[in-house]
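ok here's BRCT domain-containing protein:
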Amino acid sequence: MESGRMPHEDDPRVESYLEILESALLDCYLSCHEEDALVEMADSLGLSRRLLDEIHHDYLRSMARVAVADGVVTDDERADLIQVAELLGLSADRVDAALAMASARSACAEFALAAGDVLCLTGSMRRRRSEWEAELAQRGIEVGSLTRRTRLLVAADPDSATGKARKARKYGIPIINEDALSRLLGARTSGE
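and the structure:
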C-alpha cells in the first residue's frame, strides 16, 4: 500500500515526524532502530503522547482512505492496515472504524446533485421550506413528492419511521438531514 499520498499537517513538527514514520513503515515493519528514531524524533520535537496518538490515528485514517480510493479493499490492504495499526499501538478495531469512515467519505464525495434531480423534503427543519425550495430551484433541482425518480429524501430526522422514510428505504433512496443537504449544496453540483 502506498504511503506517499498521506496528508501532512501544517505543523512542521508533525510533518518532520510523519516523514520518519512514513519511511519507517514503508515495509510495514518497525525495526528497533526505527522505533528508537521515532521516539527520539518525537521527544526532540516535544510531541506529547496525546498528540502522537492523534498523529497515529490520522495516519491510519489516511491509509484507509488510500485503500478505499479504488472502491475495493483487498485482503493485502486490510492486512497492511492491521499491521500498521499494531505497530502504532492502535487496536485492530481502529482499522474497521478507519475503513468505515473512509468509505462514508468516499461515498459522500462521489454523490453530486445535478439540475433536473428531484428531492423530497419532510419534517420540521430549522430553515423554512420555502427557502430550501427557492435555493434548490435556483440550482435547477426540483422539490417534489417521493417517487422512484426521487434522488434524495431530506428529513429532519433521517432515522425517522415515517411513511416517506420507509418508502425511501424500500426504493433505495438515500435519506439525509438538513446539515448534509447544506454540505452537498456547498460542494459544486454537477452541471454547474
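+1. The chain has two domains: 12-109, 118-186.
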